[in-house]
Amino acid sequence: MTLFTQIKRLGADTAIYGISTIVGRFLTFLLVPFYTNVLLPGEYGIVSYVYSLIAFVNVIYSYGMESAYFKYSSTLEVGTKKQNFITPFISVTATSVAFSFFIAAAAHPILHLINVSGNYISIIYYTAGILAFDAIAIIPFASLRMERKAKQFAVFKLLNIVVNVVLNIYLLVFLKMGIIGIFISGFVASASTFLFLVPTVVRHFSFPPSGALYKALLKYGVPYIPAGLATMAIQVIDRPILRAFTNDAVVGIYQANYRLGIFMMLIVSMYDYAWRPFYFSIVKEPNAKEIFSRVLTYLVLFMAAVFLVLTFFVDDIVKIRMFGRYLIHPNYWSGLNIVPIVLLGYLFLGISTNLTAGIYIEKRTKLLSVNTFVGAAVNIIGNYFLIPLYGMTGAAWATFLAYFAMAIVVYIIVQQIYPIVYELRRLSKIAAATAGVSALYYILAPDWLDVHPRIFVELMKLGLIVLFFVLMYMMQFFNREEMGKLRRMIKLNV
Known about the structure:
By secondary structure, the chain is mainly α. Helices cover 82% and strands 1% of the residues. It has 23 helices and two strands.
């Protein structure tokens, strides 16, 4: 197989993984409007809280076996190909079953420990099942990736989401099962996914597993647990801390509005899938670093524009009516003020994604764990200090500070190992224009909403978007070459 063919195949696989992930996240997001229209904020808060705990426990259930499988199945330095499948698979299956039996047996104490009403005891049983089936599926899914069966991988992942979404609608709308129906849906979806993977398990099955390989897998995988927990802390630690300081209703409102950040998060995800193969493909070009620098500038400009559009129009988005209901139920609108903060956090996550190119190019990936632990520490400390003062808004700011700190840390690291001269002056112009237009919006918005008709308000919002680009032009952000291309594009469109 030629080098070009290999790269082409890698690009195709990456596209499949990327598209399936993005579609999957969007389908999952569709449950947010659904939940806000069928659940009270307090009920949705319990769901968000328990699933944030599941995210942490998932790290324990997998104990780095996926990474260990990739390491040893790719080199076969210990054991045969089938042993490299069956050994981690049996290990994860055995521990998952044991862990879940323990959780089910200790359901009442666990429910008391996490401070959830005894009326919801059944969600502990379903959670134990979800955790077990999700963990058992890890190695079969990893084997599909190793065998480059990207389409099969994507189909199974999407089927999991489809089953979950359909069951949620049926159990909550038609059977009126409330939050119990959500956990039943998750359990059935996870169990169904494992059934889809049974042929993969049968195809790789062999006996006995390798004891030497098992020791090597544990030695390689277990150290991943702290980094995995830190990653989860960045993503979901705000929910349990927010609940500890407030109540389930506040967590529910926070979760619904936080998920509106998906629009920026999808941009970061799509960029990530395209960025990784791109920088590896041009790293040997003489102007590679210049290209990397320019890409960051354009990325930030694009995300800044998206940030402004979503910030100005989020009120209109949540009030879109479908089938006689708002996109987000009015019970949750009190948390809309956190959406711009969440968007800004994802903007800095996008910057971090761009900056990490140097770390991967120099094969210094262990340094990424430093960044992860810094982000986790900032998020935890920020939540404990800011939530008592500002409630859910403080939780949003804590997460923003975590992503901001990660961007700063990765910038410092990369400048030490793969220095790039970024266009800091141009980036500062984007920041100044974004801050100025945002400040103007928040100064004028109260008067607009109270005095002027809706059409006037919408036109003023559009005017502020135009003002952003006018300011960029006045600050001479665009160079001569870019201005020439813009003029040609305008002429073509006209």
